[in-house]
Amino acid sequence: MTSNRILLAAGGTGGHVIPALAVCNGLRERGFDCKFLTDIRGQAVLEKIAPEQKVSTISASSPVSGAFLKRLFSLIKLSFGVIQAVFYIARFRPFCIVGFGGYPSAPPLIAANICQLPSLLHEQNARVGRANLFLANRVKTMLLSWKNSKPLPKNTAVKLTGLPVRDVFFELADYPEKSQFNTEKPCHILIIGGSLGAEIFASLIPDAISNLPEELQKSLTITQQVRSEQQSELEASYSSMSVKHFCSSFFTKMPDEMARADIIISRAGAASVAEIAATGRAAIFIPFPASLDDHQTFNAKSLTDENAAILVTQKEAENDPTLLTKEILSLITNPQKCKQMAAKARKLAHRDALSEIIETIVSCQKSAIGSAK
Questions:
Q1: CA torsion sign, 273 to 9 to 143 to 370?
Q2: For labeling, which of 118, 168, 203, 250 is most exposed (least CB within 10 Å)?
Q3: pLDDT of 85-107, one tens digit each?
Q4: Can you point out the beta strands (E) in the chain?
Q5: Are residues 184 and 327 part of one domain?
Q6: In the sheet where 263-266 sits, what is the strand order?
Q7: What is the number of H-type helices and E-type strands within the chain?
Q8: For residue 108, what are the domain limits?
Q9: What is the CATH number of the domain that holds 243?
Q10: What pLDDT sits at residue 63?
Q11: Cβ–Cβ contacts within 10 Å for residue 150, how many?
């Protein structure tokens, strides 16, 4: 064991990789030597967002879906991943393993048990993932992002730390007091989602806006993230209304876009919910219905159960187009409600999430050093 070396393991999606990368960078700033383990999908994510990050890949796959032979092959891949992880542990000699969910985090944490090394687990979503639930009883502590997280392990300590969010979101000014929205002082609505998850927004949101009275449409400025192949059609929809609009497939300065917004309409991925809470803005969440175990609905409820945001399911919005219109109307006709919701959301944000996660790792380091003596 080397007293300043840590092995970080994360699944192959941005939802797992990005929090792990934030912790990795924070640890390095404190002088720790970190090694990053993921699968080839996670490697592809890191090549896009942090090409300078060195990463080692391991074999992993989900053994809980598909035909019998597919599940059997997945178990074989996971078993090989455990062997790879044991090799990395023997070579790198970390004092601690930290997993961030997804099946690629399973082999390193299982290997930590084999090698009798302490391990921690961080869960990004309010609905604890299957891999994390399976691994929870094998770690020292499970770190949670949301107060309403469930189901929780029975025999493992849990600690609410929050989800790491860039400081720039917390540094934005509080939402200002506004008396009313009009053509001189328009209501800025930001619609974000990206990728396939927000494809439906290109039709769902314009339909809702078109049901508003024309005078209210004139008091709106809409900024919407859209797939590039849908952009011209979306712009044509808004141009047929009395709405100022700007549509783009990508925003380079998302914190600035959120700061300008009076209302944000978004999917409910863990990072999106955490960033909106950190910014402190009124939000309408439309969870992606195909998210595993419906975890996006649980994420949204972290705020909506506290009256800090509004939840509209995609099914509800599709079955009754006026429902989303009514929720938007309830905000643009009541700026005070936007102010109250924004303040409640910001109170639920975890500004010290990164430092609390790192402090937990440091405590693990002290225990490991004490045990070694």
A1: negative
A2: 250
A3: 999 999 999 999 999 988 899 99
A4: 5-9, 33-38, 56-57, 96-99, 119-123, 141-144, 157-160, 187-192, 220-225, 244-248, 263-266, 282-285, 310-311
A5: yes
A6: 244-248, 220-225, 187-192, 263-266, 282-285, 310-311
A7: 16, 13
A8: 5-163+351-372
A9: 3.40.50.2000
A10: 75
A11: 10
